[in-house]
Amino acid sequence: MAEAGSFAEKVKQQADIVRVIGEYVRLRKTGQNFTGLCPFHQEKTPSFSVHPVKQMFYCFGCHEGGDVFKFVMQVERCEFPEAVRTVAEKCGIPIPRATERSPEERRQNQQRAALVEIHREAAAFYGRQLHQSAEGKVAVAYLEDRGLDRESMSRFGLGHAPGSGDALLRHLKPKYPAKILDASGLFSHDQGGRIYDRFRRRIMFPIANESGKVIAFGGRSMGDDMPKYLNSPETPIYSKSNVLYHLDRAKEAIRQNDFVILVEGYMDAIAVARAGFANVVASCGTSLAEPQIKLLGRFTRRIIVNYDADAAGQAAAERSLALLLEKEFDVRVLTLPGGADPDQYLKQYGADAYRKLLASAPSYLDYLIARARQMDRSTAAGKLAAINFLMPYVQRIPNALMRSEWASRISAELRVDEPVLRESMRRAAAERRGNVQPKPELLSPAIAPAERRLIQMLAEPNNIRGRLAREIGANRLHCGLLAEKVFEILIAAAGSNASLDPASVAEGLADSERQMLFEAIFETSAGANWEEAESCLAALRQRTVARELVAELVELQKKIESKLPLDEILKLQARRQELQRKLVGR
Ligand SMILES: [Zn+2]
């Protein structure tokens, strides 16, 4: 993909994959590689490796692998040109214009750029309205009443949407074509097709993407205007379930503290951040969606859910909990005393009190059991209701050992007989299995150690690579091997004398072949020497002889089969297959 002499190649040469990936994954040096928890599948023990010398990554769990661009494409869900630009930006490499591929892509990129630009302007416009207009004074008073000073209003980019209905439209119309205004989500149409401001008489919270660019707004009404919160619709740059409010400012703190505080609303997030807890994000009124959890998982696996104590808040918290459990997060739940939301609580009791509560927040298990305890359990039906409340959470826990721990805890806490509970858990677990979609298994490449070692020697720069490639190629020693295609590509690369780039080599390979190549490369290996290579070649030669033998046997068998009774033929076939397996492994 990174063609010679191209901008992409230049970026690839200058970029440090460890640093780029390190922005998404906590990496730890282990031997020659760096390892961490894979961002592409859920796991508790790291199987994700980054190779600093070869500038590649590979996950031994889900077999995702490739170069720095492949990583960014996967993690940001973007196309190659965008990945190149992202890496270039991260590494401070100046980007030449027009690196897009197709006209369609160029059009989309232009549209996205224009939408980001229009949001930047809208945010500035709303900000000026808040601080400079007469209408804005009311909004400022409202915010001050809620404990925000002017400095904080600026810091969090708060604004005000005027009530006139076309103030923003008049401001932006001369600068942007109708198509962009339309796609921005900042405007609505009435039945006659007339366009007007979507947000009116509202306090505006800019919603930024992970890199801090405003891509949407949340507007809170100050009076009785309904709805209380109005958000931007989905647009080409904004998808509600992919964004968390305040994550752009929180991500460093989340990584440093290795936990995140999840609150419901904008004002809560701002209050918590102002009190000195920068590692806070808001899901904005609803429960978490799966992409948001994935996004968080890149920064930490530990979360404290601090939703409002009202019924809606608890319902949202419990829905989020179920999904977080499924994704194996370490979850704690903080319910503030007196039913306060974080904003109110901090105002009344201050940061130190909040910090103490954070530190003592119960695990989700204790939280849920406490909730179940509040139910009437004096009757059998009441007990059943309590168990039925807890069971959906149990069902979601992937780990059997943890499920078992739950059983003991719940039976002790709710005074339910353990056998009864275990039976109910067993059924729940069976149902859970029934719901799980079988994952398409990757063909597990059972390649012989000798082949693996040869792939390593061919894939790394050394002084025997050329000779090895010639020897294998001339005698067709790789023919019929599972890794035949891998050898073919490596032999060709060795012959061309150019330095080998495994990540781009891998692009011509099927999934299982790519897996063989990456796993061979990521294995720690001693330097190559011809003596060892020769012994690996001997193994290959032996297999070649074995294969020829089998082929001749098959021919011979065909010839005599017609003259034998059926049961003799079947016996012979079974014996032949057995020998064939022993000889060539298949
Ligand atoms: Zn993985």
Report what the structure shows.
This protein is α+β, with helices and mostly antiparallel strands. It folds into 5 domains: 7-90, DNA Primase, Chain A (Alpha-Beta Complex); 103-238, DNA primase DNAg catalytic core, N-terminal domain, CATH 3.90.980.10; 242-361, Dna Topoisomerase Vi A Subunit, Chain: A, domain 2; 381-435; 449-584. The chain contains 25 helices and 15 strands. The protein has a 5-stranded antiparallel sheet with strand order 1-2-3-4-5, sandwiched between helices. Strand 12, helix 11 and strand 13 form a beta-alpha-beta unit. Helix 17 packs antiparallel against helix 18 (418-435), helix 19 (449-459) crosses helix 20 (465-474) and helix 19 crosses helix 23 (511-522). The two termini are 35 Å apart. The model is unreliable at 434-445 (pLDDT under 50). The structure holds zinc ion. Residues 38, 40-41, 48, 59, 61-62, 64 line the site of zinc ion. Zinc ion (ZN) binds at residues 38, 40-41, 48, 59, 61-62, 64.
- How many strand segments? 15
Distance between the termini: 35 Å
What's the CATH H-level homologous superfamily of the largest domain?
A: DNA primase, catalytic core, N-terminal domain
The CATH topology of the largest domain, please? DNA primase DNAg catalytic core, N-terminal domain
Work out the oligomeric state of the chains in this entry: single chain
Low-confidence stretches: 434-445
- Determine the strand fraction and express it as a percent band: 5-15%
CATH architecture of the largest domain: Alpha-Beta Complex
Backbone structural class: alpha+beta
Quote the average pLDDT: 83
Instruction: Give the biggest sheet.
Output: 5 strands, antiparallel
Rounded to an integer in angstroms, the radius of gyration calculated over CA atoms is 31 Å
**How would you sum up the global shape?**
globular
Helix content: 40-55%
Instruction: Please state how the strands of the largest beta sheet are arranged side by side.
Output: 1-2-3-4-5
Number of domains: 5
Bound molecules: zinc ion
CATH class of the largest domain: Alpha Beta
Number of helices: 25
